[in-house]
Amino acid sequence: MPNSIPTLASLDMHPYLVDGALPTGIDGQVGIYAIFDESQTLQYVGYSRNISVGLTQHLVRCPKQCHWFKVHTVTRPSRTLLEEIRTAWLGENGTVPPGNAEQQMIWEKPIDAKAFMTEAERDAIANAEPSQTNKLLKQLARRVEVNVKADVEARGAQIPIKFNPKLKEQGLLALK
Fold first, then answer.
1. Got the DSSP string for 33-92?
2. Is 24 helix (H, G, I), strand (E, B) or coil?
3. Are 58 and 47 spatial neighbours (Cβ–Cβ below 8 Å)?
4. Which of 9, 61, 81, 147 has the fewest Cβ atoms nearer than 10 Å?
C-alpha cells in the first residue's frame, strides 16, 4: 500500500467527545475519517474540507452511532486521494458499514423532518393552502429540531447547534 494511504488499523482511535466537545486540533483540517459506534464497530467513512464540521454534522444526524473516530489529515486536498483512502479503508474493513450503504442518506443529507410527521401534521400539510405549507413545514422542523438537540445532548455533547432557517421552511434541518 502506498505511503500516502495509511491503513485504518494503523490509526489511533479517538473519543468523539471530550468534555462535551469534539477533540481539539481538527478544526479547519482537511482529511478523511472513520466513525465508530460504542462497541467500536465501523459505521461510516467520509471526508471533509473541515473535519470538525463533518464530525459535528454526523453527530447531529446519527448521535447514537458516533462514539469513536479515526482520522487522517492531508496537507494537499485531493478528492482523488481521499476517494482512494476511503476505498482502501472500506476494503480493509471487509464489509461496507451502514453509513456508506443503506443508511448513506441519513449520514450525508440534511435531516428530513417530514419523515417524523404525525398523522395530524400530515393531514394539516396535505389540506393546507399553498401559502401555509411552508409555515407548517417550519413548525414541523422546529418540533423535530427539539428532539434532535435532545438526542445530541443525551450523548453528552455541549456544542452549539444552529440549523439553517431557510431550509426549515422546506422541512429540512441542515447545520448552518
1. EEEE-TT--EEEEEEESSHHHHHHHHHHH-GGG-SEEEEEE-SS--HHHHHHHHHHHHHH
2. coil
3. no
4. 9
Q: Give the pLDDT mean for 24-30.
A: 93
Q: What are the sequence ranges of the domains in the chain?
A: 8-103, 111-173
pLDDT at 1: 44
CB distance 11 to 70 below 8 Å:
yes
Q: Which helix (H) or strand (E) holds 93?
A: helix 79-93
pLDDT at res. 76: 87
Query: For the residues 50-68, what does the mean pLDDT come to?
Result: 97
What average pLDDT does range 3-26 have in this prediction?
A: 93
88 close to 1: Cβ distance less than 8 angstroms: yes
- What DSSP line would sit under 152-166, residue for residue? HHHTT------B-HH
Beta-bridge partners for 129: none
Mean pLDDT, all residues of the chain: 95
Confidence class of residue 20 from pLDDT cuts 50, 70 and 90? very high
Fold of 8-103: GIY-YIG endonuclease (3.40.1440)
Q: Is 50 exposed, middle or buried (0-12, 13-18, 19+ CB in 10 A)?
A: middle
pLDDT value for 3: 54
Measured between alpha carbons, how far is 176 from 171 in angstroms, rounded to an integer? 15
